[in-house]
Amino acid sequence: KALPLAYNRDMQEDKEGLFDTADTLHSSLKIFAKMMKTIKVDVNRVRDAIKRDYILATDLADYLVKKGLPFREAHTVVAKLSEHAVNKHKSFHELSLSEYHKFSPLFSEDVYNITLESSVAARNIVGGTSPQQVETALTRAREILNGTKWNKESHSEE
């Protein structure tokens, strides 16, 4: 459709959006780099905020699945449990076992073993959040940044 055979400067117009995106990304990364040099994370505040959230809902659904409940039903149970917890202004760990039992008899005392730490550690797959996976990713990133692994392998699709 009227594409140039040898003179490809005619194709530059279609790349304007790409060039704008690259410029925006470059500017954003410069700002991000400066921000990361000075960022201070209050770990206790983050942990408290997460505890007040319902971030472990998926882990609770997985827990019920391991006890034999189909995931669709587990999802429904946890959705209702979450709504109950929100209405009572409680976190999952603040709910009593009898409150859990109102939603499923499959809950037992071991439900309290579901923690932020166990949730993070459970994702031990490539790219996951487990400490082992994070350490592997950090090691690889350091090797790439240091130039010791800057080759075809570090750019191949996995």
TrEMBL record:
<feature type="domain" description="Argininosuccinate lyase C-terminal">
    <location>
        <begin position="54"/>
        <end position="120"/>
    </location>
</feature>
<dbReference type="InterPro" id="IPR008948">
    <property type="entry name" value="L-Aspartase-like"/>
</dbReference>
<dbReference type="InterPro" id="IPR009049">
    <property type="entry name" value="Argininosuccinate_lyase"/>
</dbReference>
<protein>
    <recommendedName>
        <fullName>Argininosuccinate lyase C-terminal domain-containing protein</fullName>
    </recommendedName>
</protein>
<dbReference type="InterPro" id="IPR029419">
    <property type="entry name" value="Arg_succ_lyase_C"/>
</dbReference>
<dbReference type="GO" id="GO:0004056">
    <property type="term" value="F:argininosuccinate lyase activity"/>
</dbReference>
<dbReference type="GO" id="GO:0005829">
    <property type="term" value="C:cytosol"/>
</dbReference>
<dbReference type="GO" id="GO:0042450">
    <property type="term" value="P:L-arginine biosynthetic process via ornithine"/>
</dbReference>
<dbReference type="Pfam" id="PF14698">
    <property type="entry name" value="ASL_C2"/>
</dbReference>
